[in-house]
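Fold Annotation — chain and its backbone
Next Lines — sequence and tokenised fold

***
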Amino acid sequence: MTRIAIVASSEKLRSSLAAALRASDDFEVVGVTASSAGVPPSADIVLVARGAELSPTGRQPTSGEVVGTTLSNREREILALLADGLANKQIAARLGISTGVKRGLLLL
């Protein structure tokens, strides 16, 4: 099992990522914090999430609009490869994609 710490400024994002990762038997969430100073030394991987939360349409949500942060199957696949210790270029090669920004998506 891979021990993972989550760092994100948004409480909602931290909670959503932690819930999604706890749903997998592959990960043990050992820390959820707003800054890297709170990352426990026992973490194998530190997931740093940045950026504004967007609605499913890619725009800022309007008042009262519900925004979900559930991980897609592809995102879970990438997290599993990260947990296996693969680097960005290795993950890209394994998935047949390139690193960097492409079609508005960023592979971390």
